[in-house]
Amino acid sequence: MATDLARLHAVFDLAIRIGEGMLTNGAAASEVTATVLRIISSSGIRNVSVTVTFDEVSISYLPDPEAAPFTRIRAAGARIQDFTKLEAFEQIAEDYVKGAATLEESTARIALVPSAAPSYPSWLVAAALALMGGAAAYGLGAGILVTLAATATAAFLAVQTESLVRRRIPLFYVQAAGGFVAAAAAIAVHLIDPARSSSLVVVACLIILLAGLTSIGAMQDAITGWYVTASARMLETIMLTVGLIVGVRGGLLAADLLGADLSVSAPMSVSLSSVPVVLVSGALMGLGYAISVQTPPRSLVWCAVIAAVSALGANLLTDTGIERVWAVGATSLAAGVIAVLMAQQVRAPARTFVMAGVIPLVPGSRIYAGLLLIGTDLTAGAAKLFEAGEVAVALAAGAVLGQLLAAWALGASGRTVSTFTPVIAAPFTTLRRRRQVAGSPRGGRRGGSTIAAERTMPSTSQPSEPRHDRAADQEETP
Question: What biological process terms from GO does the record include (predicted)?
């Protein structure tokens, strides 16, 4: 009995540490819940309840009606974006569920993930963000001076942000400081050459500072009904965006005092000659972002490709007369579909490719235009900011819908669905709902390690190794 209890603790420890690692790195609540249940179900443990909130993962297990419940709770750390670690967590879960690794091997591997060295040093991350800032300005039609200024400012922001975070400064103030620095850099460009479109420096920096927000994960949780986690993530996104707006507004007030004109320049129209500019800009933005969030090297090229395609697609649709919100929604939907298919082939988290693909679609120019108008016309400025909010919602909602359609198509086609396929499902509130979401085990067998089986089979107090039969290998996901 002591051995069984020790093994039960080991299974729960593996599952909850993987769940906490995924949650910390931005995975949606449905994905964390499904992965934790897969791990526990593969060990033969039934009657388990998993709860995921904004900063906590908990597991509760009742062996039988007369026994005391067994509960484990693990708090998530500060939310970061390290896609190398996210991939490591998902790969360990995949190997364990499929039977490619034992419990002991998986436990040893999971212990190494938090302390693993980053894929790229801090200086390379700063260089990647500088590349991303310069590419954003270049794609908006900036000249050499403005592009160089955006590149230098982005590099400075990377160093400043890392320094402030290390000193435990609240992120609200970190964002505000970043917004002010961006506006100050634009003022410097205007003083050097008033004829240049210095406002593009601010727009490029806004895109960089907004890129780190978890809006897609928040939108996925909200759409699928995980409202507790979604409300906390959305509040975090809103507060950090407000901090950024406060910083930019402070910089604009300083520009007014100095007599600097930071008005918005007309966006570059897409033509045959500008297509290479858009493609190069999008690819460099995707590459810079991927490096900044520690994406594994083997996925960098794919991140650049999907970002370039998204940038060109959104600009072409907008140039044909389609409203920007619909153009962004359609493009992000396509990016979501491509990301899931790519994740299956590359064996990497779909979130890696989704986030890189939507980076060129961030509505930085609309946010900046709204901030400029607020000083002279509050109604017009608020309307412009509302437009930016519409684009942001379309971006996130389109990406989530694309992932949902692709995941559904993979499941309907009979292909093996892996841990890397995003799980977009409502909370499992009732047994009937769990069966509807999970479906029935493939082949009509009751032995498969599926979520449906985990919820319906009799309880057992002795965890076992993951099954190696065909039913276990064809895992159902919610």
Answer: succinate transport
